[in-house]
Design goal:
Layout lengths: L6 H4 L2 H5 L4 H17 L7 H15 L24 E5 L8 E5 H9 L2 H14 L18
Antiparallel strand pairs: 1-2
Helix pairs in contact: 3-4
Length: 145
Amino acid sequence: MKSNMTPKEMLPKWIEQAGESKEAWVKWFKLRVASCLRRKNNSSTKEEWQKAILTALKNCKGRGYYSNYPLSLRHYRKWQDPMWPSVDHVEGPAKSRVVIETRLVNDMKTILDEKEFDMVIRHLNTVDKKQPLILEDDWRPRRSY
């Protein structure tokens, strides 16, 4: 992260374009960096985590990496909300390679390994035998955590 710029200045444009609060996203960003630093066997510095999370935020363009669900702090106000934006550690919790996804999908991916996750998604697509369905942007599970 460039030392002369604040996280607020470095956040991607999609945040404001989506009507999201930059202040809320800065708070989210700082909490996520702190959380990554606390993980066991962490081998990355604060600056590496900041860069990784900012890069993931820019690359996601406001959509979940796996699900393509819209990411929002305005619509989902609590971290317990299943649609809350979450940091997914692509190479395990010790390395600073991450993507941004909803908590629901990230938790499912955490429980399953990559092959199992792919198998479940493909299985659901195969056995459903209904017309393919694209969920609306405002879809969310009825129950929460």
